[in-house]
Amino acid sequence: MDEAVVKKEIAQKINRINDARILESLDFIVDDLLAKSLGKDFWDDLPEALKSGIQKAEKDLTDGKGLPHQDVMAEIKEKYGR
Q1: Interatomic CA distance for residues 58 and 64, integer angstroms
Q2: Where in the chain are the domains?
Q3: CA-wise closest residue to 34 among 45, 48, 47
Q4: What are the distances in angstroms from CA 13 to CA 10, 17, 30?
Q5: Total-model pTM
Q6: What is the pLDDT of residue 23?
Q7: In degrees rounded to 5, what are phi and psi of residue 56?
Q8: What single string gives the DSSP state of each residue in 45-63?
Q9: Rounded CA gap, 30 and 58, in Å?
């Protein structure tokens, strides 16, 4: 399909969206796709404090600290009855 035709169809679809959350999500997706097409990774744009926190959390999990997802979900179901 011709690039101009695809752009026009995408613009028409976007113009029909009236939900801010959907538009924000779409904006994020487009930004991510553009960054990937340029060889960038979202990780590169994260603040150092956030990167450090993520790395610490990953290390904690590797070291056996924390709870597996399955256990957390079981606790939530027990507490809230879902």
Answers
A1: 10
A2: 1-45, 48-82
A3: 45
A4: 5, 7, 14
A5: 0.50
A6: 96
A7: -65, -45
A8: HS-HHHHHHHHHHHHHHHT
A9: 28
